C-alpha cells in the first residue's frame, strides 16, 4: 500500500490531481461552515429581536383562552369569580347557599325534582342566541353539569341576541364566554367546554359520557343544516333525549311559538329542510322541536339574495366561515332567539324533573288532518263500491302524519289545480288498476301509496272523482300541461320519501 502511495505522489500529474481534490474539499468545507455560521447568526439575531414578555407588553392582552379580546383586562371581580368557581367545583361551597339561590325552583319542583335537575348532565350544541339563553336558564335553575359545544367566537353582531356576552368577550370562543360569565352567577357548575364544530364523524366523542355519566338531555341550537341533521339523527338512533330549536330568524310574533314533534312543525324553512332530510334517514317522528308558525308577509323581514357584486368577486362558497355554511346574513330580532332558548330550557327542566306538561298543538292542525283523512276514506269507499268491491270497513294505509306531510311539505297547503288553500282534501290522481289488497286473507284494505295522492279543493276533487276515477277521462285530458307537469314533479319528489315509510 505504501509503495502505491509513493508511486502516485512521485508523479507530477498525480500531485496536481491530489492537490485539486484536497483544495476542493477545503473550499467546500469552508463554504458550508460559512453558511452554517451565517444561519446561526441570523437565528440569534431574530431571537434577540424578540422583546422580553413583561406586564407592559401587548402580548399580555391575549385572553386566558388564546383569543383576541384581551384588550379588556379581567377586572378584580372577574378574578375573584374565577377563583371562587375553582374552589366551588372542588366542593368548597356551602350547599345551603346553593339551595337558597335556587329556592324558588325548589318550591316549584319539590326536593325530588330539584335533585334530579341538580344531578343532570346536559349537552348544549350551539352557543349563539338560542343556546346561550338555554344554558343560562339551566345554570340558574340548578343544573350542575353542562357540556358546551360550539366552534364560533363572539362578534359585535352577536351582542343583539346573546344571553351573557359583553364587549369584553368579542373575539373569545362562545363556549368560554358563557362559562366565564355564568361562573359569576352559579360558581358550582361544572362546565365542559368544547370549542369545536359538531359533525357526524365526531358525534360519538362529543356526546360521550362525562365522568361515566351518560347525557340526560341534548339541546340542538345549531343553525347549520348538516350539523343539525347529524346531531338529531345520532340522538334518535342512540336513544338520547334531545330537543331541537328551529329557525328564529325572520320571526317576530311570540304568540306563534310552539313546542311539538318535528313531524308536525310547519311554516319554517329550517324545520322543513331538517324534517325532509331526517325522513330520508328513516326518522319520521320522535324529535321534539321549538318552532314558529309565523308566515312571511308584506313588509316582514326575509333572507335577501346575495348582492351581485359578491358573486362577481369569485366563488360564493369562499365567503363562508366554513364549507357549506350560509354566507348571507339572516335578519334576526334579538328577542326571538331568547324566547326559543327559554322554551328549550323550560322543556328540558320539565322532562328531567317529571313535571306534568301538555303542550297546546299548533293551530289544532290535528283536527284538520283528521278531516282530510276522513274525506280520503270516503273517496276510497265510494271508489270501491263503484267497482263492485266490499266497501264497508275498508281500511286505507295512510295515517294522520302522512296527511300532514303531504299537505304541508309536498303541496304547501295549496291545491295543485288552483292554488287555493281552503276546503282542501287528498284524492287519487289516476284511476287505479289494482285497488283491493288481497295479499293478506281477511284483511280488507285498499292499495294506496302516498305518491298517488294530490291535494285539491273539495269542489275540484268532486269533479276529478266523477270524470277521472269513475269516468273515462285521463288527468292529461282534463287538465292543462302546467298542472300535469306540476303533479308529476311532486310525485317524483315524493318517491324518495316513500322508500322510508
Automatic annotation (TrEMBL):
UniProtKB keywords: ATP-binding, Ligase, Membrane, Mitochondrion, Mitochondrion outer membrane, Nucleotide-binding, Transmembrane, Transmembrane helix
Q: Where is the THIF-type NAD/FAD binding fold domain?
A: 104-359
Annotated membrane topology is: Multi-pass membrane protein
Question: Which SUPFAM superfamilies does the record associate with it?
Answer: Activating enzymes of the ubiquitin-like proteins
MF terms per GO, please? ATP binding; tRNA threonylcarbamoyladenosine dehydratase; ubiquitin-like modifier activating enzyme activity
Q: Which residues cross the membrane?
A: 12-34
Q: Which Pfam families match?
A: ThiF
> Keyword Transmembrane on this protein?
yes
Q: So what does this one do? A: Catalyzes the ATP-dependent dehydration of threonylcarbamoyladenosine at position 37 (t(6)A37) to form cyclic t(6)A37 (ct(6)A37) in tRNAs that read codons beginning with adenine.
User: What's the protein name?
Assistant: THIF-type NAD/FAD binding fold domain-containing protein
Amino acid at each position: 500500500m505504501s509503495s502505491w502511495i509513493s508511486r502516485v505522489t512521485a508523479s507530477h500529474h498525480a500531485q496536481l490531481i491530489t492537490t485539486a481534490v484536497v483544495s476542493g474539499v477545503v473550499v467546500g468545507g469552508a463554504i458550508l461552515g460559512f453558511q452554517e455560521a451565517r444561519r446561526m447568526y441570523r437565528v440569534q439575531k431574530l431571537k434577540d429581536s424578540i422583546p422580553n414578555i413583561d406586564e407592559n407588553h401587548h402580548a399580555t392582552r391575549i385572553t386566558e383562552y388564546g383569543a383576541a379580546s384581551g384588550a379588556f383586562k379581567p377586572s378584580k371581580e372577574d378574578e375573584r369569580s374565577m377563583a371562587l368557581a375553582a374552589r366551588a367545583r372542588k366542593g368548597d361551597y356551602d350547599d345551603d347557599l346553593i339551595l337558597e339561590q335556587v329556592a324558588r325552583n325548589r318550591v316549584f319542583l319539590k326536593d325530588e325534582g330539584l335533585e334530579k335537575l341538580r344531578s343532570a348532565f346536559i349537552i348544549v350544541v350551539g352557543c349563539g342566541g338560542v343556546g346561550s339563553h338555554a344554558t343560562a336558564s339551566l345554570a340558574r335553575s340548578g343544573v350542575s353539569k353542562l357540556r358546551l359545544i360550539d366552534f364560533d367566537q363572539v362578534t359585535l353582531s352577536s351582542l343583539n341576541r346573546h344571553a351573557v356576552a359583553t364587549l369584553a368577550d368579542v373575539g373569545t370562543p362562545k363556549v368560554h364566554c358563557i362559562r366565564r360569565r355564568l361562573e359569576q352567577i352559579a360558581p358550582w357548575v361544572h362546565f365542559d367546554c368544547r370549542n369545536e364544530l359538531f359533525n357526524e364523524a365526531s358525534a360519538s366523542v362529543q356526546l360521550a359520557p362525562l365522568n361515566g355519566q351518560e347525557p340526560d338531555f341534548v339541546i340542538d341550537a345549531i343553525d347549520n343544516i348538516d350539523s343539525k341533521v347529524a346531531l338529531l339523527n345520532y340522538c334518535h338512533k342512540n336513544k338520547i333525549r334531545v330537543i331541537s330549536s328551529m329557525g328564529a330568524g325572520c320571526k317576530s310574533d311570540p304568540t306563534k311559538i310552539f313546542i311539538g314533534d318535528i313531524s308536525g312543525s310547519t311554516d319554517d324553512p329550517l324545520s322543513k329542510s331538517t324534517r325532509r332530510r331526517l325522513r330520508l334517514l328513516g326518522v319520521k317522528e320522535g324529535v321534539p322541536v321549538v318552532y314558529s308558525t309565523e308566515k312571511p308577509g308584506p313588509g316582514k323581514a326575509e333572507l335577501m339574495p346575495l348582492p351581485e357584486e359578491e358573486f362577481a368577486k369569485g366563488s360564493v362558497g369562499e365567503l363562508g366561515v366554513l364549507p357549506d355554511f350560509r354566507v348571507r346574513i339572516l335578519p334576526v330580532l334579538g328577542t326571538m332567539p331568547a324566547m326559543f332558548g327559554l322554551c328549550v330550557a323550560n322543556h328540558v327542566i320539565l322532562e328531567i324533573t317529571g313535571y306534568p306538561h301538555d303542550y297546546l298543538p299548533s293551530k289544532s292542525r290535528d283536527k284538520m288532518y283528521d278531516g282530510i283523512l276522513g274525506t280520503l276514506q270516503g273517496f276510497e269507499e265510494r271508489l270501491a263500491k263503484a267497482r263492485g268491491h266490499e266497501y264497508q270497513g275498508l281500511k286505507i294505509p295512510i295515517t294522520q302524519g302522512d296527511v300532514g306531510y303531504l299537505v304541508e311539505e309536498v303541496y304547501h297547503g295549496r291545491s295543485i289545480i288552483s292554488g287555493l288553500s281552503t276546503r282542501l282534501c287528498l284524492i287519487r290522481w289516476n284511476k287505479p288498476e289494482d285497488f283491493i289488497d288481497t295479499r293478506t286473507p281477511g284483511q280488507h284494505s285498499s292499495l294506496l301509496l302516498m305518491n298517488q295522492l294530490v291535494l285539491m279543493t273539495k269542489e275540484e276533487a268532486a269533479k276529478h272523482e266523477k270524470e277521472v276515477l269513475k269516468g273515462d277521462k285521463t288527468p292529461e285530458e282534463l287538465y292543462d300541461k302546467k298542472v300535469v307537469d306540476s303533479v308529476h314533479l311532486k310525485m317524483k319528489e315524493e318517491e324518495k320519501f316513500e322508500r322510508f315509510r
